[in-house]
Design brief:
Blueprint: H1 13-28, E1 35-36, E2 45-46, E3 56-63, H2 68-75, H3 81-94, E4 99-109, H4 114-131, E5 134-142, E6 152-163, E7 178-183, H5 192-202, H6 218-222, H7 230-238, E8 244-247, H8 252-256, E9 265-270, H9 278-287, H10 291-297, E10 302-308, H11 313-322, E11 327-335, E12 341-345
Parallel strand pairs: 4-5, 9-12
Antiparallel strand pairs: 1-2, 3-6, 4-6, 7-10, 7-11, 8-10, 9-11
Helix pairs in contact: 1-4, 3-4
Length: 353
């Protein structure tokens, strides 16, 4: 009988070793205060005291990229979904007042292609750089028979910390507070099963010029990475301006805002108060998607909502502008009854066009 090897079974240990060597410089570039050691150990260490914390509470999150990965795989554009992965985790940390400290990734594929994997992990490292957190480790799993061809999947894990008295949301949210919307970079990383359904229904290929973005292909436009709001939001929080913040992901504005609001209030939004990126107008029109469904599935142009006191709203908007964010007044907190709710006004005919 011929002697079999792991490579015969579809797993290439040498390719895995080559990938680790290829990504070590990417990980080292994300080092920050508190980082201990490097890649290759059985676990990653982090020193909270060295990072400047006195009485910290740890905050953790995990997420993926969803079927946006299918667009990356089919188009061969792998350099941005890693940033999506980081963004989906660290944006969830910062809305709780936490500073992201370190990140780990899980990359699973049927056949490890070093160049493809390095591009993906390069995007992860770039996301960590933007967020100010360290890429301290991860796992690469080659699983022939479970994934086909060049398919791969991603999961991310982030840990952050906040001083015990600085967690969000605060307890003083009430009627009169202002809702500031931080603009998104596009679809971000939610709703891509519906996006792909619309593409199939319109017979629009990924290589075709995007009808909703000038100068790029459909794939390039849709793969714009999720915006990372960590540093601007931390700056506003440390300035005492933020009462609460909501990361607008799956469930949209109606599904995410109530998660950070107390009982007895309504978040009243004006749908005409922010510019809706053209990709959403195209999706609604091409897919015949109702306004309510658009708002339930997509961010529709608002990637983050921040609750601030009315008398500090202008100061907060100026701070966000100085940090490179567009912050628009999109609504206010009103009295309500029972569980926190969201009301979106001015969803007239033609919205979101």
């Amino acid at each position: 009988m011929t002697s079999l090897t792991y490579r015969d079974a579809g797993v290439d240990i040498e390719a895995g070793d080559a990938l680790v060597e290829a990504i070590k410089p990417l990980a080292r570039a994300t080092d920050r205060s508190g980082t201990m050691g490097g890649l290759g150990g059985f676990g990653a260490l982090f020193d909270l005291k060295a990072a400047g914390f006195v009485d910290p509470v740890l905050v953790s999150s995990t997420d993926g990229v969803g079927t946006k990965l299918k667009l990356a795989i089919d188009s061969g554009i792998h350099g941005t979904v890693g940033q999506d992965l980081v963004a989906m985790c660290v944006n969830d940390l910062v809305v709780q007042g936490a500073e992201p400290l370190f990140f780990l990734d899980y990359f699973a594929t049927g056949k490890l292609e070093v160049a493809q994997a390095r591009a993906v992990i390069g995007g992860i490292a770039e996301g960590c750089r933007i967020a100010g957190c360290a890429l301290v480790g991860g796992e690469t799993a080659e699983m022939p028979g479970l994934y086909k061809g060049g398919d791969y999947d991603l999961a991310g894990f982030a840990v952050g910390a906040a001083e015990r008295g600085a967690l969000l949301p605060r307890g003083d949210i009430g009627p009169g507070d202002v809702l500031l919307g931080l603009m998104s970079s596009g679809v971000h990383s939610n709703g891509f099963s519906l996006v792909r359904r619309v593409l199939a229904a319109t017979n629009l290929t990924l290589a075709a010029p995007a009808p909703f973005a000038a100068g790029g292909s459909v794939a390039e436009a849709l793969l714009a990475p999720t915006r990372i709001y960590v540093k601007p939001l931390l700056a506003a929080h440390r300035a005492g301006l933020v009462k609460a913040a909501a990361h607008i992901t799956g469930g949209g504005l109606p599904g995410n805002l109530p998660r950070v609001l107390p009982e007895g209030v309504v978040a009243a939004l004006d749908a005409r108060a922010w510019p809706v990126p053209s990709v959403f107008a195209w999706l609604a029109r091409a897919g015949g998607i109702a306004a309510e469904e658009m708002l339930r599935v997509f961010n529709c142009g608002v990637g983050m909502v921040v609750v601030v006191a009315a008398d500090r709203a202008e100061e907060a908007a100026d701070l966000f502008a100085a940090q490179g964010e567009t912050a628009l007044r999109i609504g206010a907190i009103e009295p309500g009854a029972g569980a926190a709710a969201v009301r979106i006004d001015n969803l007239g005919a033609g919205w979101p066009a």
